[in-house]
Amino acid sequence: MILRKTLLAVMALGASSLFAQRADLLLDGGWMFRFSHQVEKSSSSPVSLPHTWNAQDALSGKTDYKRGIGNYQRKLYVRPEWKGKRLFLRFEGANSVADVFINGKHVGEHRGGYSAFVFEITDRVRYGADNQLWVRVNNGEQLDVMPLVGDFNFYGGLYRDVHLVVTEPACISLTDYASPGVYLRQTRVTPEQADVDAVVKLSNRGDAQEVQVKLSVKDGDREVVRAEQTVTLAARQDSEVRLPVSILKPRLWNGTADPFSYRAEVTLWADGRETDRVAQPLGLRFYRIDPAEGFFLNGKHLPLHGVCRHQDRPEIGNALRLRHHEEDIRLMREMGVNAARLAHYQQAEDMYRLTDREGIVVWAEIPFVGPGGYADKGFVDLPAFRANGQQQLRELIRQNFNHPSICVWGLFNELKEEGDNPIPYIKELNELAHQEDTTRPTTAASNQGGDMNFITDLIAWNRYDGWYGSRPSTLATFLDKTHTAHPELCIAISEYGAGASVYHQQDSLKQPVPTDYWHPENWQTYYHIENWKILSERPFVWGTFVWNMFDFGAAHRHEGDRPGINDKGLVTFDRKQKKDAFYFYKANWNPEPMVHIAGKRLRQASRYVQTIQVFTNCPKVELWVNGKSCGTVVPDKYAMAEWKEVRLAPGENRIVVCSVGNKKHVVQDETVIAVKVSESEFL
Q1: CA dihedral sign, ordered 480, 484, 488, 489
Q2: Which of 126, 233, 498, 582 is the Cys-Cys partner for 578 at CB 3.0 to 4.6 Å?
Q3: What is the pLDDT of residues 419-453, one digit of tens each?
Q4: Phi and psi of 519, rounded to 5°?
Q5: Catalytic residue chosen out of the listed positions 349, 414, 436, 495
Q6: Which phi and psi (to 5°) does residue 499 adopt?
């Protein structure tokens, strides 16, 4: 993938002098890395990007994993023909403070670990020579950068791609909070007509000149609508152009049913030649969220069946590549997911592109994270902290403004009002979000009562009824009581989940201790069944988001089958094994015919009499034990079929469940259960 991108970039660079268009060179190879305490000249080691230095220590459960400064250095050859053009470095993400140097001179600093940032280096480099690029990245704890705390790992490093971008002196801006420089504001969308106000940010560092800005909206190769405007750019000034267009009878972005997007191409022309080009998705849609009836997309009710997702993996931490994001999306879609809360921070650009393509409704949020059940604070009333949160919110919105999948902006997670009260600041962030984007509502994830639940347009709660104490039934009590007391609130469940190890199996159902090392899978299955029954029967809940789609790293956790992992995922950390709860949701959310026997990893039972539980969306299924039919069952409305008091034989028992009614398309699942008990019990 790196080689392919590099070759394409080199080809583009070769053409740039002829066609004078933007060129993009990937800088993921040739880096040398050392920690700040390694000052010897020979202490650096070669690395390639994406890279984190915490892939091993944080994921081993080492609570004091390396939080400090890492140094990345590489040579950057600047071609002599680039003189007279503009050069930019674009970083997709560096956690969490990055200071950039060219030839030993400081270029700039970016504070915030999850958003992209850009520095212009046009006047900082030597042309026709090697230049030394040096990036100091710091993931140490500090009080002026969000997040201050979090129930996840703060991996340090240049964990996303780095680019060198070459443009003409006048270009579509790269430095407007690292946005694409193009904002496609959907002012009015109906099935009959879509009105779009395209705002193009321009940057000129040359002499005054006349240019043409052109917008072409395409469906494949077919141009649907176009607009253009001639403007005079002042010397060494920034400006913006507005290009309104309307599309009659638009094809709408309609979630997973039809995730269609137009392609909006914005080009800049001077003296009859194209000098810059930016392409963005234009997924036209309209939606609303009703406090009594939930989420509506393009005029039709759409229950949001969602999950939350963290960005890390075993052995590589958060240094993910495109194929990792693609695999995560494939697993989500297999389960029938149509909504995702990408928590607790801005995630990779690739992820938002994929949710656009697959039709997944997204909740995107900034890392304003409270302590949850842990120590420390999520908010400290410092001017620098407040400014940093505003910066990260602007970056989140401007960099991702055009993604049709993003429907809500999240402002905080599990904050507390104790000490420095965050409420006035949340109000500032809410106002800022509406200034930046008038088309999308704001939301937040709360875990307590109080005034902070009445600031954002929507509100959601993190609930773990049946895991952290209580029983699943208390979720129903909470929802009904809250909806009755505040019928005007648009309510969602932003997190609900329970831990489970695929290695922990039992044939009895007993609620475990969350902080213990025994996390039996069957309790997680029971938890999700009971919680989903409650959630699915309350249409006023505008969205539900399982915590979590995948197990993820949390160095301070010492529970489940190993330290350093939060095992509430429906899929294991390595994405290799799908837990039973995954199949429960798949049976309920994905119409593709399927049958799954729950508890298949329990290979040895302690009792002869068992209940066989199956998740299926087939109209009728039949159970066979050792070749003998135990009868057919029609699944209930939660896609569950059960055979109670099934008597097994001593030794191994072959269990088969298959669909009934269509002999040409039979789906089935099978397992083997060994029974080993005393002779007296069997008799």
Answers
A1: negative
A2: 582
A3: 999 999 999 999 999 999 999 999 999 999 999 99
A4: -120, 80
A5: 414
A6: -75, 155
pLDDT, tens only, 564-578: 999 999 999 999 999
One-letter amino acid for residue 334 of the chain: E
Question: Would you say 335 and 585 are in contact if contact means Cβ atoms under 8 Å apart?
Answer: yes
Fill in the DSSP letter of residue 250.
P
414 is catalytic: yes
3-state secondary structure at position 465: coil
| Residue whose tokens read 């034989």 | 649
Upper half-sphere CA count for residue 657 (Cβ side, 13 Å): 26
Q: What is the pLDDT of residues 587-632, one digit of tens each?
A: 999 999 999 999 999 988 888 899 999 999 999 999 999 999 999 9
Q: In one letter, which amino acid is 61? A: G
pLDDT of residue 20: 57
Give CA–CA dist 599/612, Å, rounded: 8
The residue among 304, 337, 375 whose CA lies nearest residue 582 is: 337
| Backbone angles phi and psi of 19, in degrees to 5 | -100, -10
User: What pLDDT does 42 receive?
Assistant: 86
Cα–Cα distance measured from residue 555 to residue 166, given in angstroms and rounded to the nearest whole number = 41
Q: In 3D, which of 256, 428, 414, 316 has the Cα closest to residue 59?
A: 316
Task: Return the closest-CA partner of residue 519 out of 505, 500, 537.
Answer: 500
Q: Please tell me the pTM assigned to this model.
A: 0.95
The helix (H) or strand (E) run that includes residue 128 is none
In this predicted structure, the answer to whether residue 682 has a pLDDT above a threshold of 80 is no
Task: Give how far the C-alpha of residue 255 lies from the chain's centroid of Cα atoms, to the nearest Å.
Answer: 16
CA distance linking residue 254 with residue 168, whole number of Å: 38
Taking CA 453 as the corner, what is the angle to CA 447 and CA 458, rounded to the nearest 5 degrees?
Answer: 105
* Residue 106, token pair as written in the block: 């400081």
Helix segments in 467-540, DSSP class H? 473-485, 521-536
For residues 339 and 311, give the distance between their C-alpha atoms in angstroms, rounded to a whole number: 16
Q: In this predicted structure, what is the pLDDT of residue 35?
A: 96
Q: Is the peptide bond before 110 cis (omega within 30 degrees of 0)?
A: no
In the chain, the largest separation of any two C-alpha atoms, in whole Å, equals 97
Q: DSSP string spanning 563-599?
A: EEEE---SB-TTS--B-HHHHHHHHHH--S--EEETT
